[in-house]
Design goal:
With 352 residues, this protein is α+β, with helices and mostly antiparallel strands. Helices cover 24% and strands 28% of the residues. It binds pyridoxal-5'-phosphate.
């Protein structure tokens, strides 16, 4: 049985004040949020209320020991104005993978999806209709028990916020392959969407941006050779007709976009291989003229075409013709608005 969600509607919507063509990225939030507390060994009554600050004790364990995880997904509209979600059960499962890794309680998957659907339905006037725009959904969980000491917390909050967004990258991006800092090592938390992973990535990313790059390309922790991923995107390379993406070795976030792009490209007849791939192999391919395309995939950006990779003193330039990356981008955007067929049944309709 999925518990009933108690709904307290806010009186006046702020949606009418929003210019949907110029949405300030990451700082516009809808009227409501979903919230559920974990106490006494179980999840309490789930609610949707007006989005508002939450009083938190300074000893809340998330602040000190970092038990904090999140998800990212999008709601879009089809031409009839019906909200659509992209594979929401995958996000519910991944949240629980992250929760287990960080010693946090799992959140019931059916309630996760019902919460997303209900919030999207209540805040539906916030869903942008332009191609590439979407209502970004941010489910997250953190330890809010007031306790100083290293152990699993006994109190948590699970919250879902929603934030409308326009497309993030309209240009090709430049990556910097980092050779001093790492994102994730084997046995670490790289495969979890854990807040701390991003804390560790911020300084190297800011440094790369200061040098004119858009994002960091992370390499493995042992010898800075194997390619892992980019910022909040998984990476695909097309070398000599074959599409290669690093395999999920526990250091890489298992992107739902990544999984979908692999399935879609195979469905289209492309050869897609998941395996270890080193930066040296990419340089070699580039020298021989075999490096045909590179692109990143993730919910927030969709598909970002990669223009170049800076590595030590050199720059690997990638052709500006990206037929596969472009096709994947158009398919993902089109499927999200129902404009192109959804052959692999990704979209989940929000009723009511
Ligand atoms: C969220 C995320 C991705 C992409 O995952 P999607 O499910 O496709 O959005 C890739 N890498 C990292 C580090 C991420 O946090």
């Amino acid at each position: 049985m999925i518990p009933q969600i108690q709904i307290q509607n806010c009186v006046l919507s702020r949606a009418l004040d929003l210019d949907f063509d110029n949405i300030p990225l990451g700082k516009t939030f809808t009227d409501h949020m979903f919230i559920c507390s974990y106490e006494n060994g179980q999840w309490q009554k789930p609610k949707i209320t007006a989005l508002a600050p939450i009083a938190t004790h300074p000893a809340a364990m998330a602040f000190h020991y970092g038990q904090a995880i999140f998800e990212g997904m999008k709601a879009t509209l089809n031409s009839k104005g019906t909200p659509l979600l992209f594979r929401p059960y995958k996000n519910a499962k991944r949240l629980n993978y992250s929760a287990r890794r960080l010693g946090m309680p799992e959140f019931p998957e059916a309630l996760f999806v019902k919460a997303i659907e209900t919030l999207v339905s209540i805040d539906r006037q916030w869903i942008p209709s332009q191609q590439g725009s979407a209502l970004y959904l941010r489910p997250f969980m953190y330890a809010d028990e007031a306790f100083i000491g290293m152990r699993a917390a006994t109190q948590y909050k699970f919250i879902i916020m929603a934030s409308p967004s326009n497309p993030i990258y309209n240009k090709r991006i430049r990556l910097y392959a980092e050779t001093n800092f790492i994102r994730a090592a084997r046995g670490g938390t790289g495969a979890a969407k854990a807040a701390g992973n991003y804390a560790a990535a911020i300084q190297p990313t800011e440094a790369a941006k200061a040098r004119g790059f858009d994002q960091v390309l992370w390499l493995d922790a042992q010898d800075f050779k194997a390619i892992q991923e980019v910022g909040t995107m998984n990476i695909f390379l097309k070398i000599n007709g074959v599409i290669i993406t690093p395999s999920l070795d526990g250091t890489i976030l298992a992107g739902i976009t990544r999984m979908s792009v692999i399935e879609f490209l195979r469905f289209k007849g492309y050869e897609v291989i998941e395996r270890r791939i080193t930066i040296d192999e990419v340089i070699e391919a580039s020298i021989h003229g075999d490096l045909e395309e590179a692109f990143g995939t993730g919910t927030a950006v969709g598909v970002a075409i990669i223009q170049s990779i800076g590595y030590k003193e050199q720059t690997i330039e990638i052709s500006n013709e990206n037929p596969v990356g472009q096709m994947v981008l158009e398919t993902l955007n089109g499927v999200r608005t129902g404009e192109v067929p959804d052959p692999l049944n990704w979209m989940h309709t929000v009723k009511g």
